[in-house]
Amino acid sequence: FTPGLRLRVLHPSAEPAKDLARLDPRSLAGADVLLTTYGYLHRLEALKDHPFELVVLDEAQAIKNPGTRQVAAVKALKARFRLALTGTPIENRIGDLWSIFDFLNPGLLGSAEGFTSWSRGAAKREDGYAPLRRLLGPYVLRRLKTDKDVVPDLPDKTEVKAYCPLARKQAALYQQAVDELAARLAGSEGIAR
Fold first, then answer.
1. What single-letter DSSP state applies at residue 139?
2. In a 10 Å sphere around its CB, with 0-12 CB exposed, 13-18 middle and 19+ buried, how is residue 8 labelled?
3. pLDDT tens track for 46-95
4. Contacts of 101 (CB under 8 A, 6+ apart)
């Protein structure tokens, strides 16, 4: 929908790695959009001081671990505006959310240590995580597949059950494994069982 937009892919799949390693920062001015991967970003020295109008992170849960070189490279980008897109802002722990917001709005959730301390106590407090929801509410747009006002053209979910029976040899090997395990369990007691 924007055929005039000039895209430049900064990745060895599009340009030789040796050319990207000695990328001239002035050459970036000819592109409207620069596209790269999280894994390759830290190799692109020219981006460290490049002034971006907007940086958009897709699958932003990739920056959940603030101690990695990859996350440091993302957070070092200089941008006037920042967006993070993710379907899973919290994958394993609430600290994942802190790291994303540290990119979007540094300081909003305090330090990593302070946020971790607060979140440990949140489960014990009467209002739980409600203060966090209120604080982040203006920054989060949550879209549900069931909300037809948000995505009117999204089709209803379709489920198709596909039964994939085992081949005769696979079934025999599977049954052999089940029988062996049953025999081991029958002959075991206590913690071994």
1. G
2. middle
3. 898 899 999 999 999 999 988 899 999 999 999 999 999 998 888 888 88
4. 108, 109, 136, 139
